[in-house]
User: Fold Jg26736 protein from Pararge aegeria aegeria.
Amino acid sequence: MWDSNGVVPAGGHRVDPVSDVAVLDERAIAAAVPAPHIETVNVSKSSKVHVGTKVVCITQNVHNKEMLKGLNETWYLRRDEWQAMPSYGEDFLKLPIGFVIIGHSAANNCEQRYRCIEAMLEVQRDHMRRGFSDIGPNFLVGGNGDVFEGRGANVFGAMVTSWNRRSISIMFLGNYVLFKPIEVQFNHTSILLDTLVREGVLKPDYILYGQCQLLPLTVSPGPLLVSELKRFPHWNNTGKNECLPG
Assistant:
């Protein structure tokens, strides 16, 4: 109630019929609207009516970046160990993968770990400047035999466009038109490949190619490395003659 001057008496309240909000003790409270009471519902010839609790199942596939937990060698460096910059984004491979592609960086060779880390950072910067989301290959191999985690085991890399989603790419740091690869590089790469098979990343019958075998008139991974790919038992020499000498 209020008086003829519109003043609310002490202890009184006022209801605004427009806002449907009651003012009580200087606080605004939304006026309660009673829920409708329904006793019966008549449904005729309908298959889209559900009565009672409905359970909805949601399946979510969560991808995690594959870590080679089985490879704990001192010569294997994970991303944080070579101070990799964060990736701009990742897309994941459907494992297991049936192909491995070998390429080279075509830059100067590195024979000490710190030099190879410098080379890794330069390759990553170069690839990201060119619009890649990260360093291109899944793994890289230094001239001293160190193996570096690039994009990782289950992230699709960037080496041969039409093969990226179905291959693991490995780049040898250095220019193998000029430098001959050494024994330890093959030994450590072979251990890496065996680990990828054991961890279910690679199929046991995977096929290995040099990059130039899939991209005719290409130099990478260089003739001095192509001539040694026979060291890998899974190498397929199809297209070898299409590789440029440098």
Q: What stands out?
A: Helices lie at 113-129, 183-198, 211-214, 223-226. The chain has four helices and nine strands. Confidence is low (pLDDT under 50) at residues 1-32, 56-63. The first strand starts at residue 14 and ends at 16.
